[in-house]
């Protein structure tokens, strides 16, 4: 049985514990740029800060919570390094922290793999991570990861203070929409109301997770998710589901890959783009093991199951994942009718046909080129040729 106190770590720009009278901190640490973990000293405990507000929101809904603070963000710029976040997550996992509140993250795909490794490490040590979505409401690491409870604020304002709703089948991995307005009392007795943003929605959900664990300290991640679903506010539920504001039409290169012969061809080509700094995504009709960290996704996650549309799915992918290049992998001998119809209607820039294990044909507005006796060297030549086609389009 787990008899340790439930310790919540706020990883942010530091908690100044006297501003909202949030009580003594169990740990009050700072992770420096050289990744040293040290006691936080020489700060004013009465000053406001982002982390201070997050801590106060947690205490509002869970007065008995034990809080810790891990400062990784610069107090003025509120920026930090990926390595500091990774160090903080692993420190929490190694020091019996049960819940982590994160009102920060990264939207740079190049950070995803390393941060995911740290999240998985914490998950295996029974740490529950509650993380806010980026305020642009696009795919956010780690909030959008499967082993994290992702939160955004209720931007259409149908929820009251303290309420949240659960987003089933969320395309961007954000589980919960929650009210971000909270009335807090400062040390001088005056009240403030927090701004509406994702980072002030997450701490309330962190408090809900604490309350669940306080009743049953031994429940796991899956059971917590079940409880959050059961206790979610259902009023106007469908209106709280994420919808895209200020969406843009896709204006990036689209490459169709008709492949029924070469295993891992698409992954190899996607990897070439990503290693060169392009946020390339390969969309599969039904990939068994999608891997967003390496750019492999299942189109069905981004489609309306009742009324599937390839164009709408691409629209969703473009606005959620913000790629530079999209590849669509299909097999014209096996793909379903709806997908093939969508492909015919799609305005693609390049079509690659893998006819057999030896020959790869590339079609574009500049003509057709065939790469014979295809191997790893030919993949490099193919990639260089595609870049040449892109350069021609830009002129």
Compact description:
By secondary structure, the protein is an alpha/beta fold. It is built from ten helices and 18 strands. It has two domains: 7-240, 3-Layer(aba) Sandwich (Rossmann fold), CATH 3.40.50; 254-394, no CATH class.
Tell me, what is the CATH class of the largest domain? Answer: Alpha Beta
| CATH level-4 homologous superfamily of the largest domain | Peptidase S8/S53 domain
Count of individual domains: 2
Radius of gyration: 24 Å
Note the gap between the termini. 67 Å
Principal-axis shape: elongated
Question: Which fold name fills CATH's third level, the topology of the largest domain?
Answer: Rossmann fold
User: Please, how many helices?
Assistant: 10
What is the number of strand segments? Answer: 18
Q: Low-confidence spans: pLDDT under 50, at least 5 residues?
A: 236-242
Strand content: 15-25%
Enumerate the strands of the largest sheet in spatial order, edge to edge or round the barrel. Answer: 3-2-4-1-5-6-7-9-8
Structural class: alpha/beta
Describe, in plain words, how this protein is organized in 3D:
The chain is of the alpha/beta class. It folds into two domains: 7-240, Rossmann fold (3-Layer(aba) Sandwich); 254-394, no CATH class. The chain has ten helices and 18 strands. It has helices at residues 50-61, 82-94, 112-124, 198-215, 221-231, 237-240, 265-275, 310-321, 337-345, 376-394, and strands at 7-12, 28-31, 37-39, 66-71, 99-102, 128-132, 149-153, 164-166, 176-178, 183-185, 191-193, 254-259, 280-284, 296-298, 325-330, 350-354, 360-364, 367-371. The strands form three sheets. It has a nine-stranded mixed β-sheet with strand order 3-2-4-1-5-6-7-9-8, with helices on both faces. A seven-stranded mixed β-sheet has the order 14-13-15-12-16-17-18, with helices on one face. A two-stranded antiparallel ribbon has the order 10-11. α1 runs parallel beside α4 and α2 runs parallel beside α3. The protein is elongated, with a radius of gyration of 24 Å. The model is unreliable at 236-242 (pLDDT under 50).
């Amino acid at each position: 049985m787990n008899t340790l106190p439930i310790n919540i770590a706020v990883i942010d720009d530091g908690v100044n514990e006297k501003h909202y009278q949030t009580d003594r901190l169990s740990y009050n640490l700072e992770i420096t740029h050289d990744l040293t973990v040290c006691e936080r000293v020489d700060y004013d405990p009465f000053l406001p800060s982002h982390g201070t507000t997050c801590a106060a929101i947690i205490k509002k809904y869970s007065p008995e919570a034990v809080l810790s603070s891990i400062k990784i963000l610069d107090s003025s710029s509120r920026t930090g390094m990926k390595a500091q976040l990774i160090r903080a997550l692993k420190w929490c996992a190694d020091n019996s922290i049960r819940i982590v509140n994160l009102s920060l993250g990264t939207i740079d795909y190049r950070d995803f793999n390393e941060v995911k490794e740290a999240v998985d490490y914490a998950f295996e040590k029974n740490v529950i991570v509650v993380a806010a979505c980026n305020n642009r409401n696009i795919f956010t690491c780690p909030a959008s990861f499967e082993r994290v409870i992702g939160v955004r604020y209720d931007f259409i304002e149908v929820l009251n203070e303290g309420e949240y709703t659960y987003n089933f089948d969320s395309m961007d991995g954000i589980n919960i929409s929650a009210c971000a307005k909270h009335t807090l009392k400062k040390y001088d007795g005056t009240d403030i109301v927090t701004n509406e943003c994702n980072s002030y929605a997450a701490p309330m959900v962190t408090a809900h997770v604490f309350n669940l664990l306080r009743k049953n300290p031994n429940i796991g991640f899956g059971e917590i998710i079940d409880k959050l679903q059961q206790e979610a506010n259902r009023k106007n539920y469908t209106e709280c589901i994420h919808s895209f504001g200020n969406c843009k039409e896709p204006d990036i290169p689209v490459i169709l890959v008709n492949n029924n012969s070469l295993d891992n061809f698409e992954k190899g080509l996607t990897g070439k783009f990503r290693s060169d700094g392009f946020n390339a995504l390969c969309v599969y009709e039904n990939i068994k093991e999608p891997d967003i960290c390496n750019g492999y996704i299942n189109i069905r996650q981004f489609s309306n199951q009742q009324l599937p549309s390839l164009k709408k799915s691409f629209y969703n992918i473009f606005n959620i994942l913000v790629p530079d290049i999209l590849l669509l992998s299909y097999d014209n001998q096996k793909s379903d009718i709806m997908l093939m119809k969508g492909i015919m209607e799609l305005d693609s820039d390049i079509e690659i046909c893998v006819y057999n294990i030896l020959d790869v044909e590339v079609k574009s507005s500049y003509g057709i080129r065939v790469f014979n006796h295809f191997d790893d060297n030919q993949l490099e030549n193919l990639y260089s040729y595609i870049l040449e086609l892109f350069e021609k389009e830009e002129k």
